[in-house]
Amino acid sequence: MSALTDLTIAEARAGLSARRFSARELAAAHVEAMERAKDLNAYITPTPDKALEMAARSDARLAAGQAGALEGIPLAIKDLFCTEGTRTTAASRILDGFVPPYESTVTSRLWDAGAVMLGKTNLDEFAMGSSNMTSAFGGVKNPWRRRGDARDLVPGGSSGGSAAAVAARIAMGATATDTGGSIRQPAAFCGVVGIKPTYGRCSRWGIVAFASSLDQAGPIARDVRDTAIMLGAMAGHDAKDSTSVPRAVPDYEAALGRGVKGLRFGIPREYMLDGMPAEIARLWEQGIAWLREAGAEPVEISLPHTKYALPAYYIVAPAEASSNLARYDGVRFGTRVAGNSIEELYENTRGAGFGAEVRRRILIGTYVLSAGYYDAYYLKAQKVRALIARDFDEAYAKCDVVLTPTAPSAAFAMGEKMDDPVAMYLNDVFTVTVNLAGLPGISLPAGLSSDGLPLGLQLIGRAFDEETLFAASHVLERAAGFSARPGA
Ligand code: GLN
């Protein structure tokens, strides 16, 4: 039998129910692997004791024939989800010492399904970034390296720890969040699968807020089936989040076998960027060919407002962030740096507690919301957002799903793009439109760059049509046969 840490969630589920190994053995194998892979810095807070305790309870339920959908499956949790009794940092110094007295809805659902928590994973501070380099706990190393080049690469961001942990086999799956690409871009950089569901599909309750109208939780795992299994457990209506949608959660795993015969997939001409690396363009062509061979029909579509998506996102997201982050004032949570007045306490605390990228976003957000600039920036961005959503509505009259690359490049080196925020923001050029329109998007590894790094393809669906994404990405996954592994 191969190492327990190499199994997919579906394989582990079968192995546990056939009693080939116990949940405790599975958890212990992961805890040991985490210890050996510490150098990646994928976890901010490993919780090995909790993992073994939860696994022992899973073994009891397995023995009693009461197994849940994720019984005994060891998962990593992005450290943006509040976990009762386990510190939650959002990778920020400002939350120093914060131990939530409650559990986020998404993680509660996972534990109710029997999953086991391995620990809390690293991320960009407050999920702001594309490299994981803005974390107050230091960057995460991508387990992949370029062929013949020993430099450490970023895992992408903001869910860099979650994607790296899954790729390095120190978690079978992980939770993540995506505001502008933070599930899909790190999944692409680390050669794993990540899906951002439709806005409203998963509850945001108990997740540290970045930009509330864009944030969505979703899973990262090593194959499409595993993300379908995880999303089925994470999704669903929650009365505690007024934006969560009261719709039944379909059987996502059952959708995998649907195939794509007769499906129309859109190729947006505006996504063929000038200067796009040839290998990204080639991968996209290859994806078109694979879907076509499986019986789907490509159609050219136009998403004319695409070029305004990044500028609109970098107004809307910072605006909402500046408002959400106002609560970190040194009075209610974490860090407190005293001053001679309440204003000084706020200033000192926020000055010491927030990193440079977070401060930049708060400044931008406060500026675009201020009297005199609100109409020129914020309101205008909201109008652009509506036009981007309308572009997709019109496209979906002609097609059922949209195929694009996930990111404009493979993983870059730690330290690259760090002094140029705008170059960093360009990482999300293919993913932000999806958040602005509230749609679901999945990224799957589909090939390797010339220097041996994973590259991702993205499928974008109609609202609440994650099933088509699972069906089509399953077809692409089989066609791509991606079997490369980091460190091989
Ligand atoms: N990279 C984008 C940003 O920095 C998206 C982050 C995210 O999706 N959380 O805002």
What CATH architecture of the domain at 2-258 do you see?
Alpha-Beta Complex
User: Low-confidence segments, ≥5 residues, pLDDT <50?
Assistant: none
How would you describe the shape?
globular
What hetero molecules are in the model?
glutamine
The fraction of residues in strands falls at: 5-15%
Radius of gyration: 21 Å
| Oligomeric organization of the protein chains | single chain
Number of helices: 16
Q: Mind summarizing the main beta sheet? A: 11 strands, mixed
Mean pLDDT: 97
Distance between the termini: 19 Å
- The CATH topology label of the domain at 2-258 is Amidase signature (AS) enzymes
- In sequence order, what are the helices and strands, one letter per element? HHEHEHEHEHEEHHEHEHHHHEHHEEH
Polypeptide structure, described:
- The structure is a single chain.
- With 488 residues, this protein is of the alpha/beta class.
- It contains 16 helices and 11 strands.
- Helix 10 crosses helix 12 (356-369).
- Residues 127-130, 158, 178-182, 210, 317, 428 line the site of glutamine.
